[in-house]
Amino acid sequence: MKRNYKINQSIYIEDDSGEYDLHNDYDFKGLHYSIEGRILVLKWSRTGGEWVNQDMPMALSIKFSGVSEFRFMPRDKDIPFTEDDCLNSFGYWVDEDWAEGVITINDNQAPEPEWLTGIDFMSGAVIAIQAEQANLEIKA
After folding, report:
1. What DSSP state is assigned to residue 83?
2. 75: nearest Cα among 17, 138, 122
């Protein structure tokens, strides 16, 4: 998949404009999936926590284009709903017995082409996507 960003330490998303902490500084707000357009958009907004630099962008989104596979695995019903908006890790979903959940790789490793982009949340929910392209969009 072509993308205009990279992921660091499974929680930071980085592009030419900077590095953004999706676990601590941004809350996941939702997704929009267009079957007809084969587009998935994931949206985050800056959290109101005192620790967050107010110069950080107000919102971030990732637009996946040419989506060929989209999976949503449900949250754990025993975890509080307050954990639904908190990213746990950003990595890969692998349909192999050795993989347990979303996996991450080192900077010097390349993912296998059949691996899906995987994003899991503190609630246990998982989003897994296979797409041709992914673009980070920043809203000041």
Report:
1. G
2. 122
